[in-house]
Amino acid sequence: MSELMRLRAAIRELFRGWPEPAIENMDGREVQEFGERYGILVPVVVAEPCGDYCNCGEYGGFPTICYRLAPEFRPSPMKVCARAGCGNTFEDSKSRGTPRKYCRSEECRKALNVERVTAWRRKSNSNKGRSGVNS
């Protein structure tokens, strides 16, 4: 089943019976089963708590199964803009294959454009003195 088909099937099941969707009547176990059935949650066997707020071992101790979001459903990690003095946070979506270092605020765009132009001018000025002819 393709990812799109799996997502459509999950949404259809979730909203079955609209305007009173199925999710209103689901308990935690049913939500976990639903998430696992459609690849939204991935079961992982853990031997100890996975964090400060872990309640995986609450119903029988460890080792136990912990349900975690599949990688494609996890939120993008937040990054802090690398431009000095900015401090904005943004999601690193890696939309073009390379991670971003800077936020997309208007101020950062202008500053980074000035930096790029200045670097380009320095490079072209340093190449002006070279004629390419051996003397």
Structure overview:
The structure is a single chain. The protein has a two-stranded antiparallel ribbon. By secondary structure, the chain is α+β, with helices and mostly antiparallel strands. The chain has three helices and four strands. It folds into two domains: 71 residues, no CATH class; 51 residues, no CATH class.
Radius of gyration: 26 Å
Estimate the helix proportion, in percent. Answer: 25-40%
Return the string of H and E elements: HHEEEEH
The shape is elongated
Q: What is the tally of beta strands?
A: 4
The main sheet orders its strands as 1-2
State the separation between the terminal residues, measured CA to CA.
69 Å
- As a percent range, the share of strand residues is 5-15%
Instruction: State the domain count.
Output: 2
The main β sheet shows up as: 2 strands, antiparallel
Number of helices: 3
Model regions low in confidence, pLDDT < 50 over at least 5 residues: none
The averaged pLDDT comes out at 75
- The helix-and-strand class reads alpha+beta
